[in-house]
Amino acid sequence: MKIGMIGLGRMGRNMADRIKGAGHGVVGYDLSPESGRDVDSLEALVKALDAPRAIWVMVPAGKPIEETIDRLHDLLEPGDLVIDGGNTRFTQDQEHAKRLAERGIGLVDVGTSNGIWGKEKGYALMAGGSDEDYQRILPILEALKPEGENGLVHAGGIGAGHYVKMVHNGIEYGMMQALAEGYAIMQASPLVKNPDAVAASWREGSVIKSWLLDLMVKALQEDPGLEHIAGKADESGEAKWMVQDALELGVPVPVTTASLYARQDSQIDDPVTMKVVSALRAEFGGHPIAKE
């Protein structure tokens, strides 16, 4: 199978490489000439693919995805398919699908997780769209997912993929916040002589052993006490959307809400907890961190 890839940044480039490694063809486009792109325009990308085309889009939510959808609406043909693998809000997926359908173009939204580790270990993929469109891109999804039975799900209709990715990221917020708060209280206590060693000891035999704990220990080994990381962590938007939708549904989400507020507070204060959260975001997703 041959697809187009729009957006060759931190995740898009690695995803394109993993797809190629599975024997599929990829034509890559990015705004940056230094990205290693194969073509220098969206028009050239469309021309390089045989109809019916499938084009995976890995650009940020907001204006970048809106502009990209608008351009593809004009350039693509009936029967073509757009795959949005970014973090678009699920309500926007439904609007994009309606607009693309005017020209007979399909849409699949794919929540994508595993950041900078996906090229090696595979990506957790959560797809939303019709059964027909899901089956059409299944070879690409199979190439991207981790080995084994898990890591890929057809979550439902259009918007479902990004909806469950939103929930996934809200859970992620809470898990990181819990690790961060545990570390912070150990660091503040006069009874605990080496919080870094305690965290490392939990990696085996503990009920809280996890990949996030492993990444926290890795960050502590690279920067003991996280002394060179500022206690500030940005929010990516998904947790806020989750809290908003939870209010509409009447579902209490106190852990996600509290972790969201903690990140917002970190823009004013400089707590130890946000040093841990910031370090974890850098370890699993390659997100930039503020240095002290």
TrEMBL record:
<protein>
    <submittedName>
        <fullName>6-phosphogluconate dehydrogenase (Decarboxylating)</fullName>
    </submittedName>
</protein>
<dbReference type="GO" id="GO:0050661">
    <property type="term" value="F:NADP binding"/>
</dbReference>
<keyword id="KW-0311">Gluconate utilization</keyword>
<dbReference type="InterPro" id="IPR013328">
    <property type="entry name" value="6PGD_dom2"/>
</dbReference>
<dbReference type="Pfam" id="PF00393">
    <property type="entry name" value="6PGD"/>
</dbReference>
<dbReference type="InterPro" id="IPR002204">
    <property type="entry name" value="3-OH-isobutyrate_DH-rel_CS"/>
</dbReference>
<dbReference type="GO" id="GO:0006098">
    <property type="term" value="P:pentose-phosphate shunt"/>
</dbReference>
<dbReference type="InterPro" id="IPR006183">
    <property type="entry name" value="Pgluconate_DH"/>
</dbReference>
<dbReference type="InterPro" id="IPR008927">
    <property type="entry name" value="6-PGluconate_DH-like_C_sf"/>
</dbReference>
<dbReference type="InterPro" id="IPR006115">
    <property type="entry name" value="6PGDH_NADP-bd"/>
</dbReference>
<dbReference type="InterPro" id="IPR036291">
    <property type="entry name" value="NAD(P)-bd_dom_sf"/>
</dbReference>
<dbReference type="InterPro" id="IPR006114">
    <property type="entry name" value="6PGDH_C"/>
</dbReference>
<feature type="domain" description="6-phosphogluconate dehydrogenase C-terminal">
    <location>
        <begin position="161"/>
        <end position="288"/>
    </location>
</feature>
<comment type="similarity">
    <text>Belongs to the 6-phosphogluconate dehydrogenase family.</text>
</comment>
<dbReference type="InterPro" id="IPR004849">
    <property type="entry name" value="6DGDH_YqeC"/>
</dbReference>
<dbReference type="GO" id="GO:0016054">
    <property type="term" value="P:organic acid catabolic process"/>
</dbReference>
<dbReference type="GO" id="GO:0004616">
    <property type="term" value="F:phosphogluconate dehydrogenase (decarboxylating) activity"/>
</dbReference>
<dbReference type="GO" id="GO:0019521">
    <property type="term" value="P:D-gluconate metabolic process"/>
</dbReference>
<dbReference type="Pfam" id="PF03446">
    <property type="entry name" value="NAD_binding_2"/>
</dbReference>
<keyword id="KW-0560">Oxidoreductase</keyword>
